[in-house]
Specification:
Helices cover 29% and strands 28% of the residues. By secondary structure, the protein is of the alpha+beta class. The protein has one domain: 2-Layer Sandwich (50s Ribosomal Protein L5, Chain: A), CATH 3.30.1440.10. α3 packs antiparallel against α5. It holds the Pfam family RNA_binding.
Length: 143
Amino acid sequence: MTRIVVTAEIRPSEDEDKVKVAVANFFSFKSSKVEEGKYRLFVAESDTLSSLSKFHRVLREERILDAARKYLRRGIEGDRLTFMIHKQAAYVGKITFVDSENESPLGPITYTVFHRDLEAVVDWLAPRTSRGRPLWDNPMPED
C-alpha cells in the first residue's frame, strides 16, 4: 500500500497560502490539514505515487537526476523514504534538496513515502544516468 505524507511548517512570518503553493508545486495531494503546535504544520497526504508526477517531471527539467538519486537512496529506512527540499525554492518552482532543517531558514518541506518497493520508487523518480542522461525510464511502480 502506498502512502505519501508531505509536511511543512508555517512560521509566524509566512503566508499559509504560499506554503500550500510551495507544496503543491511538486505534490498533488488528496487531502490536507493544518495542525497546531509550536509552529502550525501543513500536512498533505496522498495514497498514490502519481501524486509525485510533478516532482518526477521537474527532476528531469532541472537535470538533477544524479543528485536526486543520491538524496533519495540515502533517505530509505525500512519501509519509508524520507527527504527534504528547500521551501522557498519550492515556492518558485525549483527543487533544492537539503540535509538538515537548518538549511532552509523557514523550515523544509519533508516528504515521507511508504511503499512496498522503495528502490523501484527511486528508480522511477531518479534513474541512473550516463553523462546526465537517464539510462532508462522506468514506469511508475504500482501502488
